[in-house]
# Entry
Amino acid sequence: MIRVLIAEDQQLVLGALSALLRLEPDIEVVAGARDGREALALCERLVPDIVLTDIEMPHMTGIELAQALSSRKLACRVVVVTTFARSGYLRRAMEAGVRGYLLKDAPVEALADAIRVVHGGGRAIAPELALASWNGGSDPLTERERQVLRLAGEGRSSVEIARQVHLSEGTVRNYLSEAISKLGAGNRVEAYRMARDAGWL
# Structure
């Protein structure tokens, strides 16, 4: 049996994925988590074969979850299932060690097949996403620029961002200015929107 943990913050989607996968004779859903932090704790305790995760979740994104699993050397392979068909997300997911990346409108057969492929050591990427990633531009942001831009997009002031990331206010403004310049944006709100649309946040 392939032991699967599902991380999904929308209860309805979590329930639907669990119910559909339980119909597969060789797949066992061992747990469900409502956010990335809970998923990580469950992975450390249960060590499932496959972690099926959304990208955007409270406390820890699916990409951050994949990075955390990799850094802890847990033998869990990650498959992302998301609504975000953005090449930037796919590239960052691959860099984090994600082995599969599918869209939520894929048929359940495709999801089950992807789980089997990844469990067997392969990769499973939605073809339309692989093509978009090949043709898309590369992410110009550093990790720190991405961090402060994400917080700015949430409406935080430079003072609040500085307090949260333990930097001086001037350093935060410099990171934001650099991100705005790299993206050719007019201000931090526009830079946030552009980076988010490209899947770089």
Notes: The beta strands are 2-7, 27-33, 50-53, 77-82, 100-103, 124-125. The radius of gyration is 18 Å.
